Amino acid sequence: MRTLGMTTAIGVIGAALCLLTACGGGGGGGGGGEAKPTEASTPDPSTKAYAGHPSNGTVLMLDGDTGELKTLAPLTSTAPVVGTVAVREGRAATHAGTDKLMVVAEGTSNPVDVLHTIDLSGPTSQEVGEIAGTQILALAYDETKTPGVLYGFDANTSQLVTIDATNASVRHIGQRLGRDRITAMAYDPATQSLVALDRETGALLDVVIGQAPIGGAPLVTAQEFGTSRYQVVHAIALLPNTDEMLFLDTTRGQFVRVHRFTGDPIEALPGPPVHRGGADQAVIAMWPRGNVRASALRTYGVAIGDEYDEGTLLFKQGEKVLFEQAYDPEGNVDVVALPKALAKALKVGDTLTWGVYDKKGKALSEATCTLVDAPEADAALKAVAENAYVSRQAPEVGTLLRARALRKAGLHAEALEQFVAAAVMAPKHKTAMLGLRASLVEILPDALSDWQAGELVQWITAGPKADDSAVKALLGR
């Protein structure tokens, strides 16, 4: 196992980026005791769909690549295959009774949502129809009514919808909930409400659908009753005759018993391993990438997995090699100042190609950046620096304003540095967390999955705080 060996204040980034590699993994904990907090992201919603069983505390997982249905259960290291169906790219699922599954998936010929039913006795699947104009992230089914009611959360409108299980027609109900990422829901017959989890904030919601007045729409209210330490969960399984429910933490392959009315964790229960999605690379050339101001070209960052052997670090302009050396760093992350001679050899308009290459010269991971003039960004940064009001605020305020200016200018690598600094200074600041995650995915769209970005956010949230001087050193200010 590689070990971290950080020697400068830049090591704050390095330790965080360890979570992008194998050292940031970790399976589920054993039973008993309080569940370990985790604020991690979910696998790509088009890769897996999960449905909590209404009565037995298990979860069905539909593999979006193979169509395999598997049963996931607490304290079980296996995931028995129920069968294989024709549904692919499933995004959301729910049991409709004990023997039927309703699934929303992306259409094969276009990106329109499609509703499917799966008969679990086969299993066999049938396409019901297209759900036009929506992005359904979560489903729940109320089987206490006759006929049953299929609910969905539409991220496009931030509203609940009812979906006709016979023809896939949709009706939006109630007002906007003011939530964009509800990724798990379950219907609780005891309270006659929907239990929902907001991915962005970890808020647990009781969503109550009131009676519709004559000629009007039903009133929908969302009351926050707790905050989950497990922010992104795709399945909620209510445990009958108890005040408990199960969350499936898809980043650790772990079930968590939580209190139904507070969201407090009761016990972590190991479950079968869950595919996390995203790239699986031995090494990732993280930055610089994209457009970078010449004055901001200061460091390079590489994430190294345990499976990495050895290679060559190379920087070049066209075919001209500017810097080359054998590359076998000590830790899982390497964040180093660029050689001064290399920076001096480049000017605005030049493109720098760099990365880590194997013995035959094949790129293990390669990135490019272009040096640019960005006068609008320079002016925006100057305005932040000279703003007397901002100077009197907490340090993270100015840092976030700089990050926003850089991101608006398309300077995502520089914005990432600023968001990291803000998150270190204020690890519970929602804007810092969301900005950091977005910048990570923007700068590494092919090499970094959403769950990895979430684990990096979690490390910064749980890790040691840095004082302002350390953050300035971190950013080379």
Brief account:
The protein has 9 helices and 28 strands. It has 477 residues and is an alpha+beta fold. A hairpin with a 4-residue loop joins strand 10 and strand 11.
Question: Overview of this structure, please?
Answer:
The chain has 477 residues and is an alpha+beta fold. It has three domains: 86 residues, Immunoglobulin-like; 243 residues, 6 Propeller (Neuraminidase), CATH 2.120.10.30; 100 residues. The protein has nine helices and 28 strands. Strands 22-28-27-24-25 form a five-stranded mixed β-sheet, with helices on one face. Strand 7 and strand 8 form a beta hairpin. The two termini are 33 Å apart.
Quick tags:
477 residues, Neuraminidase, 3 domains, five-stranded mixed sheet, four-stranded antiparallel sheet, 9 helices, 19% helix, disordered C terminus
In CATH terms, what is the architecture of the largest domain? 6 Propeller
CATH class division of the largest domain: Mainly Beta
Strand content: 35-45%
| Approximate shape | globular
Could you say which structural class the secondary elements and strand pairing correspond to? alpha+beta
Distance between the termini: 33 Å
Poorly predicted ranges: 1-46, 274-280, 459-477
CATH superfamily grouping of the largest domain? TolB, C-terminal domain
Helical stretch count?
A: 9
Helix content: 10-25%
Main β-sheet, in a few words? 5 strands, mixed
Please indicate the count of domains: 3
Going across the biggest sheet, name each strand in turn: 22-28-27-24-25
Radius of gyration: 24 Å
What is the CATH topology of the largest domain? Answer: Neuraminidase
Strand tally: 28
Return the average pLDDT rounded to an integer.
76
